[in-house]
Design goal:
Elements lengths: L2 H11 L8 H6 L19 H18 L12 H13 L13 E3 L7 E13 L5 E11 L3 E3 L1 H12 L2 E2 L1 H16 L4 E9 H4 L10 E6 L6 H12 L2
Helix pairs in contact: 3-4, 5-6
GO molecular function, one term: GTP cyclohydrolase I activity
Family: Belongs to the GTP cyclohydrolase I family.
Keywords: GTP-binding, Hydrolase, Metal-binding, Nucleotide-binding, One-carbon metabolism, Zinc
Length: 234
């Protein structure tokens, strides 16, 4: 196993052997699994029922903070937040929102890499529930089928719209594309800013985090170099 793969696996799944505290996991942005951790009863409640429950809980949070919920500006906030959580920023938790992908025959016989770069996304750090903002660059080499370009954006958004860590986001997008495209030849490059680093903790606003995935032919240096050159070009 390559050194990068060993490091990635340890970041994602080997936390049981290190007995990290909750604060250590959060402060070091450690992921515990490649799959998003979900309970078995995650979808027993309807979206409407979840919105109602979250509205009540968030109202209690605001009251605990000392906010006056009789104020016209604040009284609708608990419901707005609840709807935003379920219908927007965490909608990727629900499998029913997975993008439906139709593949098309590669009638052009195009056998070089296709790059879709600068896919903007907004996610949320699962350790502090503050935003992750970044761009994803995707490339693949057709195995005989091609995908509509907008579907690449939708797949990125699907996995971004859930509590995340960037390593997991990278892997989930890559594995999904390998599955639906029926090819190992997929590359992912994500450059993102984490507000849990820039707005709290060390409060370093100058840094960004880069993660990548190279499958199939993209593990070859020449192909990898072509991909990296393509996403860096103007």
């Amino acid at each position: 196993m390559k050194q990068k793969e060993i490091l990635l696996n340890s970041l994602l799944i080997d936390t049981e052997n290190f007995h990290f505290t909750d604060d250590e996991i959060g402060d070091n942005h450690i992921a515990t699994s490649i799959e998003t951790p979900m309970r078995s009863d995650a979808f027993d409640l309807s979206d409407a029922e979840k919105i109602k429950k979250i509205e009540g809980h968030f109202r209690e949070i605001m009251l605990t903070l000392g906010l006056d919920l009789t104020d016209d500006s604040l009284k609708g906030t608990p419901k707005r937040v609840a709807k935003m959580y379920i219908e927007e920023i965490f909608s990727g938790l629900n499998p029913k929102n997975e993008p439906q992908v139709a593949l098309f025959e590669n009638k052009f016989g195009y056998n070089e890499m296709l790059i879709e770069k600068n896919i903007s996304f907004y996610s949320n750090c699962e350790h502090h529930f503050v935003p992750i903002v970044g761009k994803t660059h995707i490339a693949y080499i057709s195995s005989g089928k091609v995908i509509g370009l907008s579907k690449l954006n939708r797949i990125v958004q699907y996995y971004a719209k859930r509590p995340q860590v960037q390593e997991r986001l990278t892997m989930q997008i890559a594995k999904h594309l390998q599955r639906v495209l029926e090819t190992e030849h997929v590359a992912i490059y994500i450059d993102a800013k984490h507000l849990c680093v820039s707005s709290r903790g060390v409060k370093d606003d100058a840094t960004s985090t880069i993660t990548s995935f190279y499958g199939g032919k993209f593990q070859e240096e020449a192909t990898k170099k072509e991909f990296l050159g393509g996403i860096q070009s103007v």
